[in-house]
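pasting for ref. prot 1 ->
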Amino acid sequence: MKQNRYSSIVGHASKRLALAVIATLSGLTLSQPAHASNITIASPVNGTTVSTSVWVRAHNVGCGGLAPVVFGYSIDNNGTLHRGVTKYDIDATKVPFGAGTHTIHFKAWTTNGICPVASTTFRVGGSSSGTAAATSSIPSNAIGSANLDGKTWAYERDAAMPGSARGSTVYPASTPSWDTARKFYMTYSRRGGVRWHQSFAKDASATHFVYDTYVYITNPSQVANVEMDMNQVKGDGATVIYGVQCSTYSKTWEYTYVRSGTHWRSSNIPCNPRTWKANTWHHIQIATHRNTNGDVTYDWVNFDGGHHVFYNAKAFSAEKLGWPRGLLLVNFQLDGYNTGSGSITAFVHNFKVFRW
């Protein structure tokens, strides 16, 4: 594998029984025992500082092997339940909070009762602009892309990788949790890789981005790298490369920089895709921002509710590729681990990009 090469896009221009025992919406106490749950909190992130207007986002797939029938949240010690937009999702923008420390409790029920509660504690104070701590959540004024799962994805073997690889993709694909996921499948030899990609909008002026998706891999031991990138063509025609990957080689979240070509650099945040739990949905968010010159700051990664900040991860990451001005493009790439041959099956769900 060529560890110093950025391989996602350079050289290619085109890329799913109602609950009977509900007494009231405040309290919602059930006597049944709790089960292992799967609630992932997207915003606000635990331990961060946010503005007074908070975006409350979470996803839920039920517990104990059962789908949810109710999903909502309560704030601090107030028992009032605010229901999600669906039994799977909470997506409430501009929720007002006073200054100080607050806790949001996310609560889900199946026909067997309540699932374990997931909570996030955060501090409210000041504007959401200008400080690293405050930018650790997605602001409520961010522009969110449509759900990209069902859009058209193109793909090809990554020519910068050794070996060979062939890929495919299908939507919708059935998984244990969702029937609206997108499936990515590849066979490879000698650590080959496949890149999937799509252009989703035009915006030359946005400077901050969050790459946000759920990823499910059936056999992580086959995977060397999970690469998740975004690209933007500025008004001057330079393509900014917001490149991040979880690498088994450096065992970190790596990021890209441009210097006589585009290269990878390891970071302070540990990551190894071969240790990810198999057949499990992992919620991943990656935040980056740039300046007018094309210097990219890699801000943070949220992985399954854990918040991890990049340190000293600012680098020039732009080059002239002749792409249309304003183009926004996302990439999802899988690289094989075996020096012989193998195959990888992965799914993504609720794939979005936020920008501001």
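and prot 2 ->
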Amino acid sequence: DTPGLEDVPHYAETKPREQYDGKTVVVIGKRNSGFELADGLLPWARGIVLVSPRGVRPDVLGRTSVAARYFQPIEDYAVGGGTRLLDAALTRVERSDAGYRVQVDAASAGELTLTCDEVIAATGFTTPFQDLVELGVNVVARGRIPALTPFFESSSVPNIFFAGNTSQGAFGLRKDGTASTSTSVQGFRYNARILADHLAERLGKPRPPLPELERSDVAAFIARELAEAPELFIQKGYLARVVELPGTSAFDAGIQPLEHFLDSGGHDAVAATIERVGHELAPTLYARRGGAVAELTLDGDPREASDGDLYRRQIERLLD
């Protein structure tokens, strides 16, 4: 509702970066898209100001999948480059003969006017709910995204499913404070594949038989997945490779949301995922036996891939 903001080009209307060459640019917003724009314009713009009321949290940004995009503008700001990070509420935007006047209320300096050549609004992103909220779909994140189950179904209205960026509404465990990468295509494409299989089963398509594994091969199979599966590396601590172990048999149950595995019960089984412990990657197993679940973080030589002998022996001990 900021006066004048309706006349400001939005993120989706950003011009080719060469057209910002030598110009001063104010980017409204200091979240993913704001920093993405600033990062892309660093070689071109003469000066960039990122403005929003909320301060930057480097401790959180360092664990995100877009950390490089965040930290390049922050580093430029720290070394006295052309970037500034301003904690301020936007009050008005006006066109001028030379470009724009952006009026803000800064946390440290009160009311200020920023003059610039270009303004880009990297804010206002929300799911296009249309009438879904009136139909009872619960929302989170200040109304921007739907509240979802681990299989991306509305938590309040059955049989309404979401794909794409909105699948971030299924939060997962968020251990160590690390969110999924469901906000970007590298993450939510794997969610969409899981959703497609889940919908097929819900709509009555017979589930194909699970591939059977030799019990003696299970440890090597899990170790190989921990070393190579892109789903586990991209969606850390969020997706898991599951092997069901009924009786003396073993079956590959595919990639599943880890939260679903922990909540669903069922056959004895093992779920393998990759989690973060501080800034280290930690191959982690969740073993379900008789309804109880045990967690094991694999210890090993960081020089060795998780399909090496050291890790495989730990997996074998757990299975035994």
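The two ends are 62 Å apart (CA to CA).
The chain has eight helices and 13 strands.
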